[in-house]
Amino acid sequence: MAFGFKVKQDTASSAEKLLVVNQNRCPQNHPCPSVRVCPTGALTQSGFHAPTAEQDKCIRCGKCVKFCPMHALTLE
After folding, report:
1. What residue spans define the domains of the chain?
2. Which of 30, 40, 42, 74 has the fewest CB atoms within 10 Å, counting from its CB?
3. Domain 4Fe-4S ferredoxin-type: where (predicted)?
């Protein structure tokens, strides 16, 4: 703990991580707000279904993860 904050050690480099969509956390009843913030278009959505991540387009910047209000997106 540093200054009262827990520090999480990142064991995998960001290049090795995959963008994961947790369909159980995604409400799938509205346009996904995280799709709009993806700078490469790696996150897409068909109708109101859970978004789909195109791993080859994803640069693992984490913008979509931070923007998801339901915390349904993770980089693992």
Report:
1. 16-75
2. 30
3. 49-76
CATH entry, 16-75, from 2.40.50.1020, 3.40.50.2000, 3.30.1070.10, 3.30.70.20? 3.30.70.20
pLDDT band at 3 (very low <50, low <70, confident <90, very high): low
Name residue 27's amino acid.
Answer: P
- What are the Cα distances from residue 14, in Å, to 2, 50, 51? 23, 23, 21
pTM for the full model?
0.79
Q: Token match 């339901």: residue?
A: 70
Q: Which residues pair with 43 in a beta bridge?
A: 53
Q: Which residues contact 75 (CB under 8 A, 6 or more apart)?
A: 14, 17, 18, 19, 20, 60, 62, 65
Instruction: Give CA–CA dist 24/32, Å, rounded.
Output: 14
